Amino acid sequence: MSNSQFLNTASASIAKDTTTYLPVCGSMIARTVQAETERPIRDAGVFSNLFVYLAGNSIDTGNSTINFRINTTNLITVTIAPLATGIFENLSDTGTATNTNYICYQVVTGTGSAGQNIIIKVLGIKFAPTTTTNTVQILAAGGTFNVSEASVTRYLTPVHYLPSAFSTTESGAKYRIREPAPATVTASDFFVYVSANSRTTTTTFRTRKNGNNGAQSVAFPSLESGGLEDTTNTDSLVAGDDFNYSVTTLTGTQALTVHTISCSLISTVDSFVLLKANVAGTGIAFNTTAYAGVAGSLPTFTLSEADTQIYPRFSFTARELGVYVSANGITTNATVVTLRDNGADSTLTVSYAAGETGLKLDSVNTTEITSGIDKIDFKVVTPNTSGNITFTWMGIIGVAIAEPVSASIRRQRILRRGGR
Predict the structure, then answer these.
(1) I need a surface site. Which of 69, 355, 393, 405 has the fewest CB within 10 A?
(2) CA 173, CA 8: separation in Å to the nearest integer?
(3) Which helix (H) or strand (E) holds 40?
(4) What is the tens place of the pLDDT at every residue in 97-120?
(5) What secondary structure does DSSP assign to 220-266, as a single string?
(6) Domains along the sequence of the chain with CATH
(7) How far is C-alpha 168 from the geometric centre of its chain's CA atoms?
């Protein structure tokens, strides 16, 4: 009952004959240095059910492998034959983490020829913590960004595409907590990884709660780099609280290069967050139907729904659709955001009238996502008028449910037939 889905959806193009690393959540940006993509896992448990979707593969010589990795050990692998695309899963192997480990993906591509690559769109893995009364999620910003402004405070959503700038205003950076009342969710183990730091003054990263400094922070003194973590303090959050991150600089315009900002989010009522975000905003033009995965950074939307979907390997109830729009130049009619369930619209939906911005929530409807059968993603439909609309984040809450025996038998039969 404590399962959660670690999910990363966007796009990573990885050249032939290389070894690179990708985060398990936050941003799908490949790096050649593992430390720049790792996320700390501070709750012991078991990872399983690795899911990969490849939209493209031009590598014609040698297999490619995508490995779920704990510290420096590959534990769960999918193997991709030359030119193969589509869904790849490992439903057999598992990886056990302790509360001192780091996790990421390793991608090793086939030899191929010049110019060949693979294009990864979706990476997902299930996590079941040892403490079965907890449900664990990691909210992470990732990529590469140089902090170089003097004497400012900047803001970002708890999930963020770090090549995009931090925000000068906080309103769009705030993620609205939707934990089932009256339960409390705990944010802990705030972590920041910096690869280089030439600043001559201290730079401080913080959690933020309801527009004020949260309880967690790490500070990088002049020239200090590496990973820093607040393992002492926590933020207690309930439904209606706003949560985000910030960075504060002192004097000087030298650069600090940050790759990861993350924290764990712990629930005791079987709920977990799936959040897709980019505090800089991602726009869609009028008269468009576009799709996005339900978690990870939001650098772009896509016109191909297959590029955004995942089959979770445990059943849960999707609820509390939340969306934040920072700008809306659509001149007439509404823009509609909907959670998709197995290629069809679910009942979870919000609508933005022409020119409307800000936070919209669907706290009424729910939909059940059945293990291994229902694929999920977001759909955005803009009207046939003019202008465009800019999204900062969209997310849902998943609440794990026990799988009925009949559903389990049905799923096993479908999988034996080779279906989904």
Answers:
(1) 405
(2) 19
(3) strand 39-41
(4) 999 999 999 999 999 999 999 999
(5) E-TT--EEEEEEEEEEEE-TT-EEEEEEE--S----EEEEEEEEEEE
(6) 4-132 (2.60.120.760), 137-267 (2.60.120), 271-405 (2.60.120)
(7) 22
The residue type of 23 is: P
Give 14's contacts (C-beta < 8 A, 6+ positions apart).
Answer: 20, 30, 107, 109, 117, 118, 119, 120
Measured distance CA(333)–CA(379) in Å, rounded: 17
Alpha-carbon span 277 to 298, nearest angstrom: 5
Region of residue 202 (left: phi > 0; alpha: psi -120 to 50; beta: else): beta
Task: Name the pTM for this structure.
Answer: 0.93
pLDDT digits (tens, 9 = 90+) for 322-359: 999 999 999 899 999 999 999 999 999 999 999 999 99
Which of 338, 336, 330, 321 has the alpha carbon at shortest distance from 396? 321
Closest CA to 215 of 193, 190, 194: 190
Question: Helix, strand or coil for residue 14?
Answer: strand
